[in-house]
Amino acid sequence: MGESVLTVGSATTVEPGFVHVDGVLHCDAIPAPVIAEAAGTPTYVYSAGLIRQQYRRLDAAFARVPHRIHYSVKANSNLAVLRLLQAEGAGVDIVSGGELYRAHEAGFTGGDVVFSGVGKRARELHEALAAGVLFVNVESEGELLLLDQVARERGVIAPVALRVNPEVAVDNPHEYIRTGEKGHKFGIPFDDVPRVARETRDLPNLKLVGLDMHIGSQISSWEPYDAALARLVALLVRVRADGAQDIRYLDVGGGLAVTYDEEAPADVSRFAAGVIEATRGLDVTLVLEPGRFLVAESGILLTEVLFRKRSGGKEYVITDAGMNDLLRPSHYEAFHRIDAVKPTGERVVADVVGPVCESGDFLALDRDTDDAPPGALLAVRTTGAYGFSMASNYNSRPRPAEVLVDGDRFAIVTERERYEDLVRQERASLDWRVA
Fold first, then answer.
1. Strands 362-370 and 314-319, how do they pair?
2. DSSP secondary structure letter of residue 55
3. What is the DSSP letter of 108?
4. Nearest Cα residue to 396 out of 415, 424, 374, 375
5. What pLDDT is recorded for position 169?
6. Which residues form the Orn/DAP/Arg decarboxylase 2 N-terminal domain (predicted)?
7. Is the CA virtual torsion 305, 18, 387, 7 positive or negative?
8. 357 part of the active site
9. Is 289 annotated as ligand-binding?
């Protein structure tokens, strides 16, 4: 991976994005077939310019108040993407020790890191405190006690933010991406927070520095977010009155919707104005945790049509990308636009499916799509978030390559896995042990 790929402003100025030029889909100034020739298919392709554009748009919306943008690494953890955001001034929100390792490899220091997640292990907490993270988002009393023990063993005071479950109903596309309703596994139940805040202050190796919430992803209606934020603010006032005077961070989460089909884009100005007004006079630094918003629309999945098939009166477009490469359609019933790299001008209603041995292996069902012949390239849109990061080796399929485009240049930032990579950690000669 060439470091020069990530140098801000070093590429020729080109309007970033995915557009057809002379009948061929381009990412920025690079024709998609050029990328496919260099990297093969399936391959994820990201526009560096679009990622920068989204980051700067959100950063500018909050410019008049103290704030920090901590990118949610789980959305897309590629080192090139992380380094690009680090160069923009972002911090990161992590949910595992592995993501902490990636963050350090990408140049983030401890103070750039917020550690979230409902099931942290003692080893991960040791690693977080050794790194000097900004704070740990604690999600249960059991975690609170474990963190105090780990901090005592290390001889340090651990900075803590309590993740609050605001217990509001959210209207978004799938129940699996809702995280702030009553009974969810995430966060501390709303009514328990004042007591847990007192417990935090009583534990000798912890310091309560923040409150946190996250109600889910793809939030397209502001009412539940406004309601959750109002509850979080009221809780902050209450716990401060109860003695928690060191709270200086209010982590308001993320979840801004992105466009997968014909949805309106998130109104970032409205989001920022609402948060700023609701937190006016609180003397806190706002922490934002966008993941999908920063990277989703920057990415496509390039895939080649292998075969065409007709069965039971249904048309099938069979591609070399399957559910192991892009899980979202199967797992979340997610819609992704699919464009032909070189449109034929003819349309067909078809299922666009992959090669994986599962009936649930599909990219689109009953889709009005280009009548693409075998050998044609398709681009599955809005796959920059939760695409490669959720990919697997199911059916012993090597994971795809990843490519970063920056204006008029591109680089392969993840090499395609090879067959030998599939068994690299496995052992043919066994070291048997007995109890």
1. unpaired
2. H
3. -
4. 424
5. 62
6. 50-296
7. positive
8. yes
9. yes
What fold characterizes domain 48-294? Answer: TIM Barrel (3.20.20)
Range of weakest confidence among 10-19, 98-107, 275-284, 317-326: 10-19
DSSP 192: G
Report how far residue 191's alpha carbon sits from residue 197's, in angstroms, rounded to the nearest whole number.
11
Burial 339-369 (b: 16+ CB within 10 A, else e): bbbbbeeeeeebbbbbbbeeeebbbbeebeb
For 33, 339, 378, the CA distances from 23, given in Å and listed in that order, are: 12, 12, 13
Neighbouring residues of 168: CB distance < 8 A, sequence distance ≥ 6: 180, 181, 215, 224, 227, 228, 231
**Count of H-run helices and E-run strands, the chain:** 12, 21
Determine contact, residues 165/188, Cβ cutoff 8 Å.
yes
Catalytic-role residue among 21, 264, 357, 430 = 357
Which pairing describes strands 314-319 and 206-212: parallel, antiparallel, or unpaired?
unpaired
Helices (H), 67-161: 79-88, 97-105, 122-131, 141-154
Confirm whether residue 328 is marked as ligand binding: yes
Instruction: Establish whether 400 is an annotated binding residue.
Output: no
Burial 190-207 (b: 16+ CB within 10 A, else e): bebbeebbebbbebebbe
**pLDDT surpassing 60 at residue 180:** no
CATH superfamily of 3-47+296-419: Lyase, Ornithine Decarboxylase; Chain A, domain 1 (2.40.37.10)
Predicted local confidence at residue 342, as pLDDT = 98
46 is annotated as contributing to ligand binding = no
Does pTM top 0.90 for this prediction? yes
